[in-house]
Design brief:
Blueprint (H helix, E strand, L loop, with lengths): L5 H4 L2 E5 L3 E5 L1 H7 L2 H4 L21 H19 L3 H13 L10 H10 L4 H11 L1 H8 L9 H7 L10 H7 L5 H14 L8 H6 L1 E3 L5 E4 L3 H19 L2 H17 L12 H4 L7 H9 L3 H9 L5 H9 L5 E7 L9 H8 L3 H14 L8 E7 L10 E4 L4 E4 H4 L9 E8 L4 H12 L5
Parallel strand pairs: 4-7
Antiparallel strand pairs: 1-2, 3-4, 5-9, 6-9, 7-8
């Protein structure tokens, strides 16, 4: 089969701070100029992390380009045919177009209204319903190969059956192009060294086993240890930094307060109505969702007659709530009684909201200024079956989990917070212990 010339894959090049120049095909240039992709310029990769690490202002736009670059390197390493290479590049490029304002944070809002709906499901919905993207993937106007069906097949991450499991693994797995890009990119923009690992070694030792699953070879398994440790440290120090947790939860509280406000749009519809997949046609839902980004959602919330406006204005001025209570629930250090720890670990979101209201009432504080939140940091790369290692000499596939020489923390790290205004911190702490009856050491 005749290979496409290098000029095909480099019809246009874009400079990237991590990789130098990223080459794009003519089809991919059309994809990044669609409304859905341009929208990613207005969605920050790391939500409110910029309030802690000011350099973390990068967006889903450049991450998506970086994901294409890494996917292409994996495709080349595996020796994929040009058609498969095109499919995996397009899927990598489009994998995040369903992201909502402030990225993964908005998944919480979607969950409140639509159950299990996530940005991945919306990505698939967009690709299946946007005429421009469909036309580009089908190659209708330029005589290119029709890759539409195969792209749709691999962009749903939790699907159990794929026509090509290897391509699906490249897009979503323990060793996928998404994770390999965002860890280094987030570390770079935040200005920290936690996410630095030997990407070139990883990419040059990626392989597949006889069952067509994405693996790392035995030669590359050691390079993945810094990758796994990097993910762990990035979660602790960046993704779950307490100030980001506070800002994110202030935003979520603002959204929750405004969901049923009938004055925002001036037509008696609410934000909850417009975000409901059941109450809208797919077209109407997507038309509205396309306009949502970090900036437009702030504007909508500031138009609310609820208390949302106050919280958003506090975020804009970086006047964050403070930690009144911060408890580590993975050990007995902060909460000695195991039954008390279990009570906090098992607390539902509704119960935490009720506790927030009780604390606010007790300390005579407006309820929007008290937030009870449990944070769970679960590092999937420390679980079994996440990364496969293929020993070609023995023709045997192993689990990196069992091969690792390091003893690592396997269980989730769970913390319980109570956030309140600075002047009410001590009152909120005291009210928490009085209401729950939980002794804190």
């Amino acid at each position: 089969m005749t290979r496409k010339p290098n000029s095909y894959w480099r019809y246009k090049v874009i400079r990237d701070p991590l990789y130098g120049f990223i080459g794009l095909t003519k089809r991919e240039v059309r994809l990044i100029n669609t409304e859905w992709f341009i929208r990613l310029f207005r969605i920050k990769q790391l939500s409110h992390t910029y309030l802690v690490y000011p350099g973390a202002m990068h967006t889903r736009y450049e991450h998506s380009l970086g994901t294409l670059y890494v996917a292409d390197k994996i495709a080349s390493q595996l020796g994929l045919e040009d058609y498969e290479r095109e499919v995996v590049r397009a899927a990598a490029l489009l994998h995040d177009i369903g992201q909502g304002p402030f990225s993964h944070l908005f998944d919480e809002v979607l969950k409140w209204i639509n159950g299990d709906c996530t940005h991945e499901h919306l990505t698939k919905l967009i690709v299946e319903n946007d005429d421009e993207i469909k036309s580009i993937l089908r190659g209708e106007n330029d005589g290119e190969d029709d890759i539409y069906d195969d792209v749709v097949d691999i962009i749903e991450p939790e699907k159990r059956q794929y026509k090509n499991i290897l391509l699906a693994d490249i897009i979503s797995s323990g060793l996928d192009c998404d994770k390999l890009d965002y860890l280094r990119r987030d570390s770079y923009h935040a200005g920290v060294a936690y996410g630095i690992f030997d990407l070139e070694r990883v990419l040059n030792t990626i392989t597949k086993n006889p069952k067509n699953r994405l693996c790392i070879s035995m030669k590359g398994k050691d390079a993945l240890e810094s990758y796994r440790l990097g993910r762990y440290l990035m979660h602790l120090q960046v993704y779950h930094h307490h100030a980001r947790e506070i800002a994110d939860n202030m935003f979520l509280r603002a959204v929750k307060l405004a969901l049923n406000d009938e004055t925002i749009f001036g037509d008696n519809t609410t934000l909850a109505d417009r975000l409901s997949l059941k109450k809208n046609t797919t077209k109407n839902f997507l038309d509205f969702y396309k306009e949502l980004d970090d900036y437009s959602i702030y504007s909508l919330l500031k138009n609310s007659k609820s208390k949302s406006k106050k919280l958003i204005e506090m975020l804009e001025k970086r006047k964050l709530l403070k930690r009144a209570v911060s408890l580590d629930l993975t050990s007995g250090r902060d909460v000695p009684d195991p039954s008390d720890r279990k009570t906090l670990v098992d607390m539902t979101e509704e119960e935490m909201d009720n506790l927030s209201e009780k604390i606010a009432k007790t300390i005579q504080e407006p309820p929007e200024y008290v937030i009870v939140k449990r944070s769970e940091i679960s590092i999937k790369l420390y679980e079994e079956y996440e990364i496969l290692v293929y020993d070609e000499e023995k023709d045997k596939t192993r689990d990196l989990y069992e091969l690792s020489p390091f003893e690592v923390k396997k269980e989730a790290i769970i913390r319980m917070y109570v956030f309140a205004r600075q002047k009410k911190k001590e009152d909120a702490h005291r009210a928490f212990t009085e209401i729950t009856g939980i002794k804190i050491s």
